[in-house]
């Protein structure tokens, strides 16, 4: 596999659905649909060469929950995930753009405990299947001079291991009980060994029918500045998330996290860190670290990612 093809294949599924792994949020009922920073490091504006691509991505996260003022509130969490992904680029064209489609299935494990207290596995540990994510269409345009733009639409199916107690999602639940529709627009510059990418996404969530909780809609920005050095790609990555509508339950705005006053429980998170990838002949290995340096109304996680991408056909 050529180096350019390996670069494009780098976590190929994550680059175009742009929506994979869950992250503990506490706002948006429990999990943000898209994991913070999941598409970082990816030339998301450009589809890879025609073919079928597989990817396996594993992450480990740790953090504390922030209240509405951005201070530690009490719950402390750890989690891990493995996600299997498949990207198909059949060689079709539409509106002068190349076409692709994508599917992913994450499996999640997390533990939560109160700071200063003991953890109870029966009450605070959860594992199982997160929501299946399908992306029926991805379109990527080559604008010339190594500039690319893509758009896509991902859909999160409410088919994961969801649990609730009355009108509250259970602490051992590992998925969301609502549909999410996630349009995206990404720009990539890929000239002279550079990958400079801005990836914009919005989550539109339906209501959890078991709890009548409606998680507010979210905006995500994942950004990448990376350069090739022989078989390595090294760079800086980051993520910003801002919830722009209120969480509501039974038709009323939900109080902010941590009893800090105010309503809406609108989530914010920001992270930054390094990426290192190594391109083999038939695969790409990737390491990413994202440090969560700011948060409000929910989890403020830091992530360590290990992944491998490879062509299947």
Annotation keywords:
Lipocalin; four-stranded antiparallel sheet; disordered N terminus; twelve-stranded antiparallel beta barrel; mainly beta; 313 residues
The CATH class: Mainly Beta
Characterize the biggest β-sheet: 12 strands, antiparallel, barrel
**Residues in helices, as a percent range:** under 10%
Q: What count of domains describes the coordinates? A: 1
H/I helix tally: 3
Cα distance, first to last residue?
11 Å
Rg, rounded, reads 19 Å
Tell me the total number of β-strands. Answer: 22
Based on the coordinates given, report the CATH architecture: Beta Barrel
Question: Could you say what the CATH topology is called?
Answer: Lipocalin
Shape assignment:
globular
Determine the strand fraction and express it as a percent band.
over 45%
The low-confidence parts are 1-25, 115-123
Spatial strand arrangement across the major sheet: 3-4-6-8-9-12-13-16-17-20-21-22
- Structural class by sheet pairing and helices: mainly beta
Please provide the ordered H/E string of secondary-structure elements. Answer: HHEEEEEEHEEEEEEEEEEEEEEEE
Q: Could you tell me the mean pLDDT?
A: 87
Q: How would you name the CATH homologous superfamily?
A: Autotransporter beta-domain
């Amino acid at each position: 596999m050529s180096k350019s093809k390996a670069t494009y294949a780098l976590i190929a599924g994550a680059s175009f659905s742009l929506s994979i792994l869950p992250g503990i949020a506490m706002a948006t009922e429990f999990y943000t649909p898209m994991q913070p920073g999941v598409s970082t490091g990816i030339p998301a504006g450009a589809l890879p060469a025609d073919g079928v691509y597989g990817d396996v991505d594993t992450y480990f996260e740790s953090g504390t929950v922030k209240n509405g003022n951005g201070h530690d509130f009490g719950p402390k969490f750890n989690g891990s995930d493995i996600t299997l992904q498949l990207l198909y680029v059949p060689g079709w064209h539409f509106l002068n753009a190349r076409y692709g489609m994508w599917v992913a299935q994450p499996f999640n494990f997390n533990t939560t405990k109160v700071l200063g207290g003991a953890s109870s596995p029966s009450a605070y540990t959860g594992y199982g299947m997160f929501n299946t994510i399908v992306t029926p269409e991805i379109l990527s345009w080559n604008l010339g001079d190594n500039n690319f733009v893509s758009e896509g639409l991902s859909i999160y199916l409410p088919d994961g291991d969801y649990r609730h107690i009355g009108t509250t999602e259970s602490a051992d639940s590992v998925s969301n009980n609502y549909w999410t529709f996630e349009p995206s627009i990404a720009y990539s510059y890929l000239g002279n060994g550079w990958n400079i990418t801005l990836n914009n996404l919005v989550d539109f969530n339906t209501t959890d029918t078991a709890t009548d909780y409606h998680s507010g809609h979210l905006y995500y920005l994942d950004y990448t500045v990376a350069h090739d050095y022989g078989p390595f790609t090294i760079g800086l990555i980051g993520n910003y998330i801002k919830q722009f509508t209120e969480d509501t339950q039974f038709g009323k705005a939900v109080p902010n996290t941590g009893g800090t006053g105010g309503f809406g429980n609108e989530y914010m998170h920001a992270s930054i860190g390094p990426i290192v990838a190594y391109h083999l002949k038939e695969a790409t290995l990737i390491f990413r670290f994202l440090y969560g340096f700011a948060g409000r109304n929910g989890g403020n996680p830091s992530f360590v990612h290990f992944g491998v991408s490879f062509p299947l056909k």
